[in-house]
Design goal:
Layout (H helix, E strand, L loop, with lengths): L2 E6 L12 H8 L6 E5 L4 H14 L2 E6 L4 H12 L2 E5 L5 E5 L2 E7 L7 H15 L4 E9 L3 H15 L3 E8 L2 E9 L4 H15 L3 E3 L5 H12 L3 E5 L5 H7 L8 E6 L3 H8 L3 H6 L5 H13 L5 E7 L14 E8 L3 E7 L4 H22 L1
Parallel strand pairs: 1-2, 1-3, 3-6, 11-12, 11-13
Antiparallel strand pairs: 4-5, 5-6, 7-9, 7-10, 8-9, 13-14, 14-15
């Protein structure tokens, strides 16, 4: 099969504004593009010329356009191909088919009319067209060094002799690795690849399916019959928000305290004034006392506390922006972890939220 892609972009916007995530979905499904062409304005003549040329050379064409142009582009596709409109959405995304050729018209964004439509409709359509069946596995990790993950994936590609495809998504130090392969690939080979990845990722691996860390944590709390409480400073309630987003969290989530101010840390959590004056709010000792204060109430079995400096400015101790302390404790002990996160204020807090959930999950597995 031969595949090509046309991207219709606004010439007044930078290339970085383009969302080409739909092409990733085709690639993950095993359908790579041999040629991609960019058109910089919506003009009937150049688009018709390109579509006519590509329809002679390729079996499948992906046309990515700004969502505001979907319906207008659809009229051109119908006029040019004069083929059957296979299926589509009210907003314009769809599949056109004529004489064994297929044209996929999608919005150039990550919405249901773009990447979502590619994954849920277009790729299955092509798999049926060519009689291809694929299987998919997912690995989720938090805290893996970026370079180490890249090396592992390259080694996995080498072991699989490129018979297995890997799609990696990394955000806020969390990696989601999709492993896609045709049904003709042997189980022995997929087992070898999974063994390589699992051994290489170690404790940073928290799921061998597509279950987010907050769901994993709530599931394990339910299984153990435990309750969790959270004390947050610089994450501003982000950890608690993630937990309560999971259905059934009410059975395991006792409380969340957003103790942003130093006086709140003293009144609500029992952090000592001496600790705050000598060590500072963003310190190992403060994180420890925040977590211990929750445990001391007797209302929870496991506690999580976060404190740090998200920026853009440091605190009165001149500690670096991105410094974070995350404490996880139970009725027997409290552990404090120190991190130095990079990124914007939003990225730093999002990373801290992910690590807090991950550390709570790992702690819970060990008790």
């Amino acid at each position: 099969m031969k595949n090509a892609c046309i991207v219709l972009r606004n010439c007044k916007e930078s290339f970085s504004s383009l969302d080409l995530s739909a092409t990733d979905e085709f690639l993950a499904g095993g359908f790579a593009f041999e040629e991609t062409r960019f058109l910089t304005q919506f003009d009937d003549a150049p688009l018709k010329k390109c579509l006519a040329e590509f329809s002679e050379l390729y079996e499948n064409i992906l046309l990515l356009v700004d969502k505001s142009l979907l319906q207008a582009a659809g009229k051109i596709c119908e006029e040019l191909l004069k083929g059957e409109f296979f299926q589509g959405t009210p907003s314009g995304s769809g599949i056109y088919s004529a004489d064994g050729k297929s044209l996929f018209l999608l919005s150039a964004d990550g919405s249901a009319n773009g990447a979502g439509y590619a994954k849920g409709v277009c790729v299955p359509y092509l798999q049926k067209k060519y009689g291809i069946r694929t299987d998919r596995m997912v690995i989720r990790t938090i805290g893996v060094n970026d370079g180490h993950m890249r090396e592992l994936i390259e080694e996995a590609r080498r072991v699989s002799e490129d018979k297995i495809r890997f799609r990696r998504t990394r955000k806020n130090d969390e990696d989601i690795l999709e492993i896609v392969y045709d049904d003709g690939v042997s189980k022995m080979l997929t087992d070898d690849v999974m063994r390589l990845l699992v051994n290489g990722l170690g404790e940073n691996l928290y799921a061998l399916d597509d279950t987010p860390i907050e769901e994993r944590l709530v599931q394990l709390l339910n299984l153990r019959g435990y309750k969790i409480s959270v004390a947050e400073s610089f994450t501003g309630g982000g950890v608690g928000k993630k937990i309560v987003s999971v259905s059934g969290a009410s059975k395991v989530y006792f409380e969340g305290i957003n103790a942003y101010n130093e006086l709140s840390k003293q009144k609500r959590l029992g952090v000592s004034e001496y600790t705050l004056k000598t060590a500072g709010a963003a310190s190992e000792r403060t994180a420890y006392e925040m977590a211990a204060g929750l445990i001391s109430t007797g209302d929870c079995d496991i506690s999580v506390a976060t404190t740090g400096i998200a920026g853009p400015l440091s605190d009165r101790t001149d500690s670096p922006v991105g410094l974070a302390f995350i404490a996880v404790g139970d009725k027997e002990k409290v552990f404090v972890y120190r991190y130095k996160f990079d990124g914007t204020r939003e990225e730093i807090t999002a990373k801290a939220v992910n690590y807090a959930l991950y550390l709570a999950y790992n702690h819970l597995k060990r008790i």
